[in-house]
Amino acid sequence: MGMAQTASIRPVSVEEYLKGELASDARHEYVNGEVFAMVGGTKAHNAIAGNLFALLHTCLRGGSCRPYMSDVKVRVRTGQDDRFYYPDLLVSCTRQEASAYYTEAPVLIAEVLSASTERHDRAEKFYQYRKLESLQEYVLVAQDLMRVEVYRRATGWDLELYGEGDRFRLETADLELAVDELYDRVEWETNAEHQ
After folding, report:
1. CA 63 remoteness from chain centre
2. Total domains, the chain
3. Does residue 188 lie in a domain region?
4. Residue numbers of the domain that contains 110
5. In angstroms, how far apart are the furthest CA atoms of the chain?
6. Domain-embedded: residue 154
7. Residue 28 near residue 6, CB atoms below 8 Å
8. Were 108 and a residue from 42, 70, 91, 127 both cysteine, which residue would form a disulfide, CB within 3.0 to 4.6 Å?
9. What would the 3-class secondary structure string for the chain be?
């Protein structure tokens, strides 16, 4: 999901933001007092995120870690910097969270890229997410071709690139996946028309 460039006029407190999100029909991200509306996604985006969630959910069932889809926020707080983002998918292994609506300790974050979000997901969000000591893996999944990028703290966030026919491992979930599984039932023509 992308972030629209419409910000609030006056700085909004974290408390106001969180209260507003509970009453809002739309989702918003928060960056140091500014609130940005999120834009909708495509069917392909939804199918890819859903496929990854289903695979992780099955793998993690009964364990201490749980996957969450795009309605759970990630809070990144360092010094005076305070941000809330809605990743497409995250995995948290923390039982006692400070909030039912966000986590500050994800071990894995995945974003499905689109033309409107790719730059933001690769730059600002990746930079901010790496500040979370808990984060071990960051996954970027293209929606216009079979391309998965995996970045791991253990390798200094070096790129691991996978394509059609490849398999890759998510260490945090102890799960090996085929790239093709992520793209099951993705409607490529519809996706290409609306990028």
Report:
1. 21
2. 1
3. yes
4. 41-72+86-193
5. 50
6. yes
7. no
8. 91
9. CEECCCCCCCCCCHHHHHHHHHHCCCCEEEECCEEEEEECCCHHHHHHHHHHHHHHHHHHCCCCCEEEECCCEEEEEECCEEEEECCCEEEECCCCCCCCCEECCEEEEEEECCCCCHHHHHHHHHHHHCCCCCCCEEEEECCCCCEEEEEEHHHCCCEEEEECCCEEEEHHHCEEEEHHHHCCCCCHHHHHHCC
Answer yes or no: is 125 within a domain.
yes
56-88 confidence digits (pLDDT tens) = 999 999 989 999 998 899 999 998 899 999 999
What pLDDT, on the 0 to 100 scale, is given for residue 69?
92
Q: Say how far apart CA 191 and CA 99 lie, in whole Å.
A: 35
Q: 156 exposed, middle or buried (CB, 10 Å; 0-12, 13-18, 19+)?
A: exposed
Domain membership flag for residue 109: yes
Asked whether the beta carbons of 168 and 176 are under 8 A apart, the reply is yes
Chain segment 98-119, per-residue pLDDT in tens: 788 999 999 999 999 988 888 9
């290409």: which residue's tokens?
192
Q: What's the pTM? A: 0.89
CB 172 within 8 A of CB 184: no
Mean pLDDT of the chain: 89
CA distance 31 to 43: 28
Please report, as a single letter, which amino acid is at residue 34: E
What is the pLDDT, as a whole number, of residue 191? 42
Supply the CATH number for residue 104's domain.
Answer: 3.90.1570.10
